[in-house]
Write a structure and sequence with these properties.
26% helix, 362 residues, alpha+beta, five-stranded antiparallel β-sheet, OB fold (Dihydrolipoamide Acetyltransferase, E2P), Rossmann fold
Length: 362
């Protein structure tokens, strides 16, 4: 099956400054693709080009077999865009949701029916007669989403729609949006710098940095196997250790890290200098060397500090190299974890990811 959207050799400059340079990006039909990356990386510029709100300096955007750059008006009728700010019109919630349908000269009875359905999906049926200027931030964004969904677009573009919402409002809307995306038949591109949103909503993630696509994969793949240090930092790999390959045997690679050796399953065969990546949730703390684990990597260390994060505690252990571990409150209390306490940390060879650091500036 042919991709629903194909971006090739796409470039964009503002004045003389390059902001986007993408060799190729494909989106399948009915796929939710999250475009993730730090602020200023080019995510929103990519979305605006796909929406034909700006023109590229080079390259092509092929939508369902047709070149969208040459057929902008036709493409715009097949997509809908929701921005970070709700950008509602003067009038009622009903008027805002119905706007696109009225522009397309949809019959009055059909407008009423489809607006009612969209409002119910987003939990704003009781607000249909309320003026848009009296809505809360969450209500306004739900109205914006309903205005986009009511058009039944083939391609839905969402540009940081949760960014301006407070945490409780965001959590509620994110859950509802996830339910809607699972039911609707649309291709979705969701721009965000919040990894949690991508993990909940997306089938795949495209990490963009400096205007270039660095990595594409499922959210789980990008989280577990970032391709470079920048991706690792973004997806929250707190344990990033500088190491050198020391040797390989029996399917394992030994990596020297500050005088100690860490055993890993994967390795970079073409380079000696590497980053060793270990997610905090893959590390275990015990008071005894043996503990209750089959992990190959075990190190003694001293607790440097602990931080209460609410559900979990963030514990930093110095074992010749710093190691961040996430521990439950109960475990902290049972082991009396505090600064100065001697502990053992352990992690499996399969829980370690190794990438090259050749040529990187750090």
């Amino acid at each position: 099956m042919a991709p629903h959207l194909v971006v090739k050799n796409l470039t964009k400059r503002y004045s003389s400054r390059p902001v986007l340079d993408i060799d190729e990006l494909t989106i399948d039909k009915e796929e939710v693709l999250a475009v993730i990356g730090p602020n200023g990386s080019g995510k929103s510029t990519l979305l605006r080009l796909i929406a034909h709100l700006e023109k590229p300096d080079g390259g092509s955007i092929e939508f369902a077999g047709g070149n969208g750059v040459k057929d902008g008006f036709g493409i715009r009728r097949r997509l809908a865009v929701v921005f970070q700010e709700s950008l509602l019109f003067t009038g009622t919630v009903f008027d805002n949701i119905a706007y696109g349908l009225r522009v397309r000269k949809t019959a009055r009875g059909e407008v009423k029916k489809r607006v009612g359905e969209a409002a119910e999906v987003f939990g704003i049926s009781h607000l249909l007669e309320r003026p848009s200027n009296l809505l809360s931030g969450g209500e306004a964004q739900r109205t914006s989403l309903a205005r986009a969904f009511v058009l039944e677009p083939e391609l839905l573009l969402l540009d940081e729609p949760m960014a301006s919402l407070d945490p409780p409002t965001k959590e509620s809307l994110l859950a509802d949006l996830n339910d809607v995306l699972e039911k609707m038949k649309a291709t979705v591109i969701y721009v965000t710098h919040e990894l949690t949103e991508a993990m909940i909503l997306a089938d795949r993630c495209a990490f963009i940095e400096g205007g270039r696509i660095i990595q594409v994969g499922t959210p789980q793949e990008v989280m577990a196997s970032p391709v470079n240090r920048k991706v690792a930092d973004f997806v929250g790999v707190e344990n990033i250790l500088k190491g050198r390959i020391a040797g390989s045997s029996d399917g394992l690679t030994r990596v020297k890290v500050n005088g100690s050796e860490i055993e890993v399953i994967n390795h970079v065969s073409s380079t000696e200098k590497v980053w060793v990546l270990i997610r905090p949730e893959n590390v275990t703390i015990t008071l005894e060397e043996s503990g209750n684990t089959s992990a190959r990597n075990r190190f003694s260390g001293i607790v440097k500090n602990t931080l209460d994060l609410g559900v979990l505690h963030r514990v930093v252990v110095d074992c010749g190299f710093p190691m961040v571990v996430f521990v439950t409150k109960r475990s902290v209390e049972e082991m009396s974890l505090q600064a100065g306490k001697r502990v053992w940390i352990s992690f499996k060879a399969t829980g370690v990811h190794v990438i090259s650091r050749e040529g990187e500036r750090v």
